Amino acid sequence: MNIVLNSPVLYVVDYPSVGAVEVIDKRRARGTLLAGDAAIRFRRELADAMNQSEDEDADIDLECLDHFEALMTQPAIYQ
């Protein structure tokens, strides 16, 4: 398990041993677990956004969520 990003908007955890990425949108308290091709695409888009953006994390967060927002259907419960 590797925490890839923990910003005010987005929380991303990579699970390389199972080929999955967990993504949580903190603003909406919703998340998803991406696996297979979706996880590969998300990793690539996150890396591209991080390489292109020198601004704050929020810009990266919103750019990465654009294509995956519809998949974030699971409620994120904070304790």
Keywords:
79 residues, alpha+beta, 5-stranded antiparallel sheet, 32% helix, globular
What does this entry look like structurally?
The chain is of the alpha+beta class. Helix content is 32%, strand content 32%. The protein contains 2 helices and 5 strands. The protein has helices spanning 37-52, 57-65; strands at residues 2-6, 10-15, 20-25, 30-35, 74-75. A 5-stranded antiparallel β-sheet has the order 1-2-3-4-5. Strand 2 and strand 3 (20-25) form a beta hairpin. Helix 1 packs antiparallel against helix 2. The longest helix has 16 residues, at 37-52. The chain is globular. The two termini are 20 Å apart. The model has no long low-confidence stretch (mean pLDDT 81).
Beta percentage is: 25-35%
Order of helices and strands: EEEEHHE
Runs in which pLDDT lies below 50 for 5 or more consecutive residues are: none
How many helices does DSSP assign?
Answer: 2
Q: How many strands?
A: 5
For the CA atoms, what is the radius of gyration?
Answer: 12 Å
Helix content: 25-40%
Sheet with the most strands?
5 strands, antiparallel
Strand order of the largest sheet: 1-2-3-4-5
User: What is the rounded distance between the termini?
Assistant: 20 Å
Helix and strand content put the structural class at: alpha+beta
Mean pLDDT: 81
Brief account:
The chain has 2 helices and 5 strands; from the N terminus they run ββββααβ. Helix content is 32%, strand content 32%. Strands 1-2-3-4-5 form a 5-stranded antiparallel sheet.
Secondary structure layout plus pairing:
Elements: E1 2-6, E2 10-15, E3 20-25, E4 30-35, H1 37-52, H2 57-65, E5 74-75
Antiparallel strand pairs: 1-2, 2-3, 3-4, 4-5
Helix pairs in contact: 1-2
